[in-house]
Amino acid sequence: MKTSQWHKFIQLILREASMIIKDHSLLLTLLVAPILYAFFYGSIYINKEEEEVQLAIVDMDHSDLSRQLSDQVNNLQIIDLVSAANLQDAQEMMYKGKVQGFLYLQSGLEKKVLSLQPANIVLAANAARFLPSSDLLSGVTQVALTVGGGVRLKYYEMQGLNEASAMKEVMPLNFDYRPLFNERVSYGAFLLPGILALILQQTLLLGLTGSIAAERDKSSVKTWVETAGRNPSVALYGKGAFYWILFFCYALFFLTVNFNALKLPIRGSFFEILLVTALFLLTLIPMGILIGSWFKNQLLCVQIMAFSTYPIFLITGYSWPYESLPLPLQWLSALLPTTPFLSIYTALVQEGGTIYQRFGDVVHLMILWLFYTGLSLWRIRELSKQTLI
Question: What is the CA radius of gyration of the chain?
């Protein structure tokens, strides 16, 4: 780049900084919102796992086995047992929201288990709320299998089998379940890294699209392109450089301060994470300029971009498998830089992978960068022609 172009490039960065300082809405969006949202949403999921989900228990057996089951279920960190006099009482407690379900131990439970007859334990969980019902099911299932296996082990030992032979009868197939990366399968540990990445993206797009819309709203597009010497590339990345520098600093802040405060591990290479993040921000800049250039009203532009946050998160394959989306939504998702970025980002941050293992996603992100750069350069030329009329 020639010296004169470097001078114009720096002028555009300073011009953008001056424009933001004078625009209170942009100032709040770019300087307050990223930090505020990161700590606010992070604080919601800081505990990562829910604890003491209340579960009513109806013990109609009143045996040593039923008491053992109750004690072990109550010892789980996830569950807080509440006694209910009968089934109707337990149902009423669930309908009123006092408990998230009930556990029903039928009469004759111990007798059936000791005689190796089928015995039922009924768990009714309020599936209207996803997390409590899922956690209750996994906790109670684990305890039921453990206690039932222990009882059957004693039965076979009483029949004259040694411990090793009895264990083969109780558990002929040993299921070794080992969750990787998110070892405790906690909702917060899964969700928080993706939320921080989404905050980075959406606050950048809100600020950048709002800035471009403001240029058209205040009829200052001519000043912008003339400051760039009517060079679309300088106009694009001169304005975008301010946002790239600012949000790369935010990315560093999130990966150090927020990740430490929220006790989120970074299992992959820190350098590779920064490299991919830099490319991601570089792709968002022409995309943001392209989107903002179609608006003449700054407020309308910001409102639409704010509305897009949740739909973007849902179709990127982070909260719902990409392959399970309807085909048109898969095509739309493939046009978003968020989709390949979150795939690489998750592999690096949570799985300890490398860029080379997700090289296809890196290529996808680079193609989107070239695609949006080409479209935004064309759009800047069109706006530049309009200012000459």
Answer: 29
